[in-house]
Amino acid sequence: MAEDAPSTAAAAEGSQHASAAEGGSAAALAASVAKAARERDGGGGGGELPCASIHLPQAKRLIGRRFSDKSVQEDIKLWPFKVIAGPDDRPTIVVQHEGKEMQFVPEEVSAMVLSKLRDAAVAYLSEPVTDAVITVPVYFNNAQREATLDAAAIAGLNVMRIINEPSAAAIAYGLDKMPPPASGADAAGRTVLIFDLGGGTLDVSLLNIARPGNNSSSNSDNGSFEFEVKAVAGDTHLGGADFDNAMVKHCINEFIRKNDVAEDGVWSNQKAIRRLRSACERAKRLLSFTAQTSIEVDSLHDGVDFCAKMSRSRFEELNKELFGKCVKAVEKCLEDAKMDKSAVHDVVLVGGSSRIPKVQSMLHDFFQEKKLRHSVNPDEAVAYGAAIQASILNGDSDNADADADDKKRVMILRDITPLSLGVEINFDHTMSVVIPRNTFIPTKNTRRYTTLYDNQIRVSFPVFEGESASTLDNNLLGKFVLSGVLPAPRGVPQIDVTFDFDTNGVLHVFAEDMGTGSKNNNTITNHSGRLKKEDVERMSREARSYNRKRKRTRSSLQMNSGNLVILE
């Protein structure tokens, strides 16, 4: 049960483009934010800032979300740092540094991590890096993807493409494992299930990896690959951190039971909770190799130490519900693809938490005769696949070095929409789907609507994503307004609404009154809490200033390359 993967950078040889795979490394993230806080505050370069004051594991779960979201409220109870409601209900992270309070929005934290990843790529390539392919969980919604674009803009990166993490992992796997052309039954392609369980999210994707035009003599031997996503499933709130949370809750309940102390008093000590969480995470990793270990924390509360045994079977029992969700996600993915599990050729494990023995045994039992594939590094596969995608997008095929370059040059990725997209109609919160889930992207679709009232001159279209027939159970993306509608009895005006879903998984909406020609293509009102353009520009200026300051003091900083992220 290895530690959850750090945020990872990869770069293609001979390219000025990099990929970034955002992971859940608390150490890397803490160091990045701590360093940024010190230098933005005007600090020098000598010495380490104790990470105890700025320690932000799982901050990715805040990006693109509202502070009032139920999931955010549940998470902040367990996090060892403070989160408050900022403007527009935006989660804002509060840290203390040298007696000063500093605040960061999630996009700023992600921008710091992306900057560190870029530095790693620059150090390797010895060339500037300005473009990037960024991977995200497959179930990242529209707001989260837009927030990721904002984070990249703050970091000064041009996003060539946002791709789903399991799709990137499939590229890394398929590039090496696809059989050569005309190799019998496999020439029609292989069906691969990617099971990606990381530090904070679960992604399951079912893909067909084939050579396009297998039945065409003109294309059958050109070395090309097509990765066609058939279905996706997952949970943006299921990963290694959730297994840790279950252990933390159990330990605190045990401590309260044995020592008869108030629950609020234990939970209020953030430093103690942080130490307990670290001990639980260590125990989780050890339980991959031993049947039992111990969890020990000195002075957990009021000078009282905590010590308890934790067996592998107890760990599995504490997380029984979460493990069950993993299997349900696999079943859902196969169901959506209308495919039996016997049709799956390979099951590929990705993400640090996929090393958990219980996860592997459940998947083995589910697929029975299928062998679980460990041929790709679970921590690096996503970044490797994204780097290949960056090379393709950049057209880096001039390097005449072996067959791999030929494969990269003609690789095709056909991804899909993870959630249905639509508008609210009628008076009963009905969800009218414009783009169904599992539609190949990029895609565009138009549906015609009309007015609800007589002489209506202005029409509001609330835009949602989700699978419920009622918008009350779906996620509101924003509200689209069309003015200048010709007054007429209800039901007479004809209004065409077009959804354009781009390759980054971001939605653009257009509306037109077919009677008057009145149009609106200003996309969606800022209900999702996306940063305003001036905010992005301000944060980008601050980041550039920080980078210049960091370069001036680089010679006095101690370099530590223990992670793939360069920690300075």
UniProtKB/TrEMBL annotation:
It comes from the Eukaryota. GO terms for molecular function: ATP binding; ATP-dependent protein folding chaperone. Residues 518-568 are annotated as: Disordered. Residues 531-545 have a biased composition (Basic and acidic residues). SUPFAM superfamilies: Actin-like ATPase domain, Heat shock protein 70kD (HSP70), peptide-binding domain. Residues 518-528, 555-568 have a biased composition (Polar residues). It holds the Pfam family HSP70. Keywords: ATP-binding, Nucleotide-binding, Stress response. Belongs to the heat shock protein 70 family. PANTHER family: HEAT SHOCK PROTEIN 70KDA. This is Heat shock cognate 70 kDa protein, putative.
